[in-house]
């Protein structure tokens, strides 16, 4: 008897599903860079009214729903850049990979970086080249340029700032990569709101640059709204392979609504940045912890025993991300999302308990 397994791609059968953590009730979730700030009650009521008016009997039409213009106005997206929405920037990463998936095409990115770059390359049967960062998680530009020259990648991903390491690569290095790459360079600014620099103002002006952004890390991960900005020559092709109704009416409506609350969003961003620096300073005092600079809403640390720290926090209902085992450079590393001040303090206290008061 033939089983359906005979018909399913064997490479997919061998893959592991992206692990979305099941979080017990009452846990403090510091594993996925979600915002800890809930809406105020009055804002929720307004959102309810806005959603009630959303025309859910109709298919969504991003072009006419208003969100595109709100994004352009809010983030000063250049008029000559095209703008495409995705169901999370994850969908745009997938479709940008599909866009270049000719036989033999290659995808390249620094490593370690966002795992979905590799996963999507593999989905489309493309070779993925991960160019190791330096041990301090800065970019090895010479190695990048040599790999670009050798492999002539169709697509290069640069997370700016980088996940899971938190740092922002030097702008000049990213510029050199864009100049040296024959194919498309995607500068993924998922953490752009927490960063001191951005390529967004150049979107549309550099022929092979696509800038990816998302609402996920600034308080709206549940809406699944990402967007790509870049030259029409690339994005007009991308539009052809985005499913016609990929966005949903409620998300489009909620995003347009949420972006009106810029003071709320910006205040939360600056609080998180402040907490990030406060935590980094406190952790820096521990001689046994190696802290890395971050321009994102998380900190990456090397500790004496990543599993022990993970377990100790877990036992106190705090979930972080253990990076150890994902890449050789991430030996004994953990990634901790910045939460509310009292949550961060709880983490710091537990670290003091484990490693002694500095
Ligand atoms: C979180 C993250 C994304 C995914 O964002 P969504 O818009 O939620 O799909 C993309 N890139 C990087 C580097 C991320 O860390």
TrEMBL record:
The keyword Hydrolase does not apply. InterPro entries: Aminotransferase_I/II_large, HisP_aminotrans, PyrdxlP-dep_Trfase, PyrdxlP-dep_Trfase_major, PyrdxlP-dep_Trfase_small. Belongs to the class-II pyridoxal-phosphate-dependent aminotransferase family. Histidinol-phosphate aminotransferase subfamily. GO terms for biological process: L-histidine biosynthetic process. Its cofactor is pyridoxal 5'-phosphate. Pathway: Amino-acid biosynthesis; L-histidine biosynthesis; L-histidine from 5-phospho-alpha-D-ribose 1-diphosphate: step 7/9. SUPFAM superfamilies: PLP-dependent transferases (SSF53383). The lineage of its organism: Bacteria, Pseudomonadati, Pseudomonadota, Betaproteobacteria, Neisseriales. Pfam families: Aminotran_1_2. This is Histidinol-phosphate aminotransferase. GO terms for molecular function: histidinol-phosphate transaminase activity; pyridoxal phosphate binding. Gene3D superfamilies: Aspartate Aminotransferase, domain 1, Type I PLP-dependent aspartate aminotransferase-like (Major domain). Residues 27-348 form the Aminotransferase class I/classII large domain. Keywords: Amino-acid biosynthesis, Aminotransferase, Histidine biosynthesis, Pyridoxal phosphate, Transferase. Homodimer. It catalyses: L-histidinol phosphate + 2-oxoglutarate = 3-(imidazol-4-yl)-2-oxopropyl phosphate + L-glutamate. Its EC number is 2.6.1.9. The modification N6-(pyridoxal phosphate)lysine is found at residue 217.
